[in-house]
Automatic annotation (TrEMBL), chain A:
Keywords per UniProt: ATP-binding, Kinase, Nucleotide-binding, Serine/threonine-protein kinase, Transferase
Organism in which the protein naturally occurs: Cryomyces minteri
Protein name: Protein kinase domain-containing protein
Bias type Polar residues, positions: 1-20
Keyword Nucleus: no
UniProtKB/TrEMBL annotation, chain B:
Protein name: RNA polymerase II transcription factor B subunit 3
Region (Disordered): 157-176, 181-227
Cell compartments where the protein resides: Nucleus
Any one of the GO CC terms: transcription factor TFIIH holo complex
Keywords: Nucleus
Organism placement in taxonomy: Eukaryota, Fungi, Dikarya, Ascomycota, Pezizomycotina
Positions of the MAT1 centre domain: 49-224
A GO BP annotation: regulation of transcription by RNA polymerase II
Molecular-function GO terms, alphabetical: cyclin-dependent protein serine/threonine kinase activator activity
Organism, scientific name: Cryomyces minteri
Stretches with biased composition (Polar residues): 206-225
Keyword Cell membrane attributed: no
Gene3D superfamilies named among the record's database cross-references: Zinc/RING finger domain, C3HC4 (zinc finger) (3.30.40.10)
Leader peptide range in chain numbering: none
Residues of the RING-type domain: 20-48
């Protein structure tokens, strides 16, 4: 994998993550020895040394209750043995007999990518160790406030405006640009892989499909990215693509933040590719030279002209004209015409009103059972606990009243 | 209000058959005691006005209250997320309710109007900001509806097309049967039956496809149920951020490379060839990205002094990624590349 051009990306003033920084993230002798070991089975340290280093590492963390479940992993909240108040997440990869050494490529990709990337908007990997039954454990920064999908879907309890959307988008775009700057493609950007840290910071997570930029001769797999967020070149099975595959997904997230449901949806790959053609426009040699040569290109029965600005303004006016321009630049069908992650950050939208919300002011998830209870808002018809009579504040639905 | 209904159990049960006795303001029926007609429950702020008690269901009174409430809400439009805590928000709601109550019931009318006006003038910016936010929310709701309408249109069109195709199938089927009958000496009724079945089968397959599409479309909109309504929302204890300087999208990070400057183009046969190949260009492969990476790898050993690095292997070392990455490069651990498996 590529070395980080790391001298170029010194964090501005971000030294507060002391937990992260106390561990040299890539020093082969310490925390990541197990990962390195799996990367290079033949040059692994002598078993005994490995075992003892691994045990030492394992003892530093205490696993508490389970908080999530992925395809190949269970995720737990835990804490440092030495500091019970410092929470961490432990992503325990289930042993998978299908793979050599029981470890899937996804896991190796994830560990490698996260080792390279240190950024406030990218989930931090503190350490890796193995536990019994050869399960690999990734020790990650803990994100107690759920993911962006939960916020987007909870239209009843979570209200947000353009300043909030801009703040989330800013954090996402920073993360994506940083990945690309370090020659890593994420390839699975979607709202439920965007976790929310305790301080409101958005964290790009789940690097299971990430890979480094390819040598030109290397064929890359196209079967990446969750369907709704997948760019057209991957539907057409392009084998040589670039960072702008992620930019398309970012555009999908932007649209979804406004609409509060996925912009481009389909039950199957073909259906979704058709949806792109209907919603964004039909890829043709005119708007995308060479597209018909791509392996899975399907000649359309019905050519929809590429949608122009008024279409987007109808749907996304709340983002303002310049926000719509930015979104359209991410939905360019031809990847060569699509904005790069750097161009996205250079866009004028970020400087325009409204200014992105501060992360501490961003809406929080609408609370499940735990958050409900005494702290409930008082609304119409509710009695205050002490039975105070005259000042019951309530939310009133005038619209429903007047009919 | 649904949450509250759960919590306050009994009133919900009492609701039965009392549809008309619902308070026009808070829509709760609990303030009416069914045993004592129009004896107002002391929990509801309506209790003070005798006059009101008689007029509870008169539209004119309702309208007036609604107007006052709307006027107040336009000014006191703080949102819950403006507050540090729910307690602060509730306190604010209570204060607003005081003013509202006084205005409705003409208590300290001048004083209340003055409070309203002075709050409005002192908080112009926040008020319009929150108007803006609500506007955005409703625009977003509208956008959802626009898209839903569009999808409905697609559905209708598909249904129409389906109908036409079915008609055409039927006609073709009939023609087929006629042709078969004309050209063969087979059993006429069997041929007719088979012809019919073929039509049926064709239309069934299509139906299934259409059903699936409709399911997809309806699941599209299930997330987007608009939650309408106009809410009085909360007051603010936080101050607006004072000038923080312009927003920096790069957040202090830079893509300047320390050891090299990348040119726009390199004379390099290997790339020149591929750059003309649509297999690369049409997929969007970016040769500049590749050059940037190659250069970076080539230069990443510079500025690394192995002697310094070696002493830094103790775990307490607060390392920058730069030096560690460079150390690995310097120490020749580039074999983590393995065969490219992706
Ligand atoms: N650092 C974290 N802090 C808090 N919760 C987390 C963290 N990492 C993961 N989770 C939770 O665990 C779930 C699964 O994690 P993740 O997406 O990384 O696993 P996965 O196996 O890659 O899943 P999939 O591929 O199915 O999306 C997440 O959706 C999230 O709810
Ligand atoms: Mg995931
Ligand atoms: Zn009432």
């Amino acid at each position: 994998m590529a070395m980080s051009p790391t001298e170029t990306v010194a964090p501005s003033s971000n030294t507060k993550n002391t937990v992260v920084r106390t561990k040299p993230p890539k020093a082969p002798q310490t925390s990541n020895s197990s990962a390195t070991n799996h990367d290079k089975p033949r040059t692994a340290p002598a078993p005994q040394l490995f075992e003892s280093l691994n045990d030492e590492e394992k003892r530093k963390y205490v696993k508490d209750k389970q908080v999530g479940k992925g395809t190949y992993a269970d995720v737990f909240v835990g804490h440092f043995a030495s500091s019970p108040s410092t929470k961490i997440a432990i992503k325990k990869i289930r042993f998978n007999a299908d793979f050599k050494d029981g470890i899937s490529m996804d896991t190796i990709r994830e560990i490698r990518a996260l080792q390279e990337l240190r950024h406030p908007n990218i989930i931090a990997l503190y350490s890796v160790f193995s536990s019994k039954n050869q399960n690999l454990n990734l020790v990650l920064e803990y994100c107690p406030r759920g993911d962006l999908m939960e916020l987007i879907r909870d239209t009843d309890n979570v209200h947000y405006g353009t300043a909030d959307i801009k703040a989330w988008m800013g954090m996402l775009c920073r993360a994506v640009w940083f990945c690309h700057e370090n020659f890593i493609l994420h390839r699975d950007i979607k709202p439920n892989n965007l976790l929310i840290a305790a301080d409101g910071e958005l964290k790009l997570a789940d690097f299971g499909l990430a890979r480094s930029f390819a040598e030109p001769e290397t064929r890359m797999t196209y079967n990446m990215t969750t369907r709704f967020y997948r760019p057209p070149e991957l539907f057409y099975q392009a084998r040589h693509y670039s960072g702008v595959v992620d930019v398309w997904s970012v555009g999908c997230v932007m649209a979804e933040l406004v609409l509060r449901f996925p912009f481009i949806q389909g039950d199957t790959d073909i259906e979704t590719a058709n949806k792109i053609s209907e919603t964004i426009g039909t890829p043709t040699e005119d708007n995308w030279p060479g597209v018909t040569q791509l392996k899975a290109y399907l000649a359309p029965t019905n050519v929809v002209p590429v949608k122009r600005k008024p279409f987007y303004m109808d749907l996304f006016s709340s983002l303002g004209s310049s926000g719509v321009d930015l979104m359209m630049s991410m939905f360019a069908l031809d990847p060569r015409k699509r904005a790069t992650s750097k161009q996205v950050l250079q866009h004028e939208w970020w400087q325009q009103e409204p200014r992105p919300s501060r992360k501490e002011d961003l809406p929080k998830r609408g609370g499940g059972v735990e958050v409900m209870g005494d702290d409930l808002k008082r609304r119409g018809g509710e009695l205050p606990a002490e039975g105070r009579a005259d000042k019951v504040a309530r939310k009133i639905d005038f619209g429903a009243m007047k009919k | 209000m649904s949450r509250l209904a759960q919590r306050s159990g009994p009133p919900a049960a009492r609701r039965e058959g009392e549809e008309d006795d619902v308070c026009p303001v808070c829509k709760s029926s609990r303030y009416l005691n069914p045993n004592m007609r129009f004896l107002v429950n002391p929990e509801c702020y309506h209790r003070i006005k005798n006059k009101f008690r008689k007029q509870t269901f008169e539209d004119i009174q309702v309208e007036r209250e609604v107007d006052i409430r709307r006027r107040v809400a336009e000014v006191f439009n703080r949102r819950e997320d403006d507050f540090n805590s729910l307690l602060d928000y509730n306190n604010y709601l209570n204060d607003v309710e005081d003013i509202t109550y006084n205005l409705i019931n003409k208590i300290d009318l001048d004083e209340s109007e003055r409070k309203l006006a002075s709050y409005a003038s002192r908080n112009q910016q926040t008020i319009s900001l929150n108007v803006q936010k609500s506007l955005q929310e409703s625009q977003n709701r509208e956008a959802r509806q626009v898209l839903e309408k569009e999808q409905a249109r697609i559905r209708r069109e598909a249904a129409r097309r389906e109908e036409q195709e079915e008609k055409r199938d039927r006609e073709e089927g009939r023609r087929d049967v006629i042709n078969m009958l004309a050209s063969s000496d087979g059993d006429a009724s069997r041929i007719a039956r088979e012809g019919q079945q073929a039509v049926l089968k064709r239309s069934k397959t299509r139906q299934a496809a259409i059903q699936k599409q409709q399911q997809a479309l309806s699941s599209d909109s299930s997330n987007g149920a608009p939650n309408g309504g106009f809410f009085i929302q909360g007051l603010k204890t936080k101050v607006e951020p004072v000038d923080e300087g312009p927003y920096d999208p790069f957040q202090g990070f830079s893509d300047k490379r320390k050891y090299f400057v990348q040119q726009n183009r390199y004379a390099w046969d290997r790339l020149d060839r591929l750059q003309k190949d649509t297999n690369w260009t049409a997929g969007g492969y970016d040769f500049r990205e590749f050059c940037s990476r190659t250069l970076c790898e080539a230069f990443s050993g510079l500025g690394v002094f192995i002697g310094e690095e070696v002493t830094r292997t103790d775990p307490a070392f607060v390392g920058s990624v730069a030096t560690v990455a460079a150390a690995e490069a310097g120490a020749g651990s580039k074999d983590i590349m393995m065969e490219d498996p992706f």
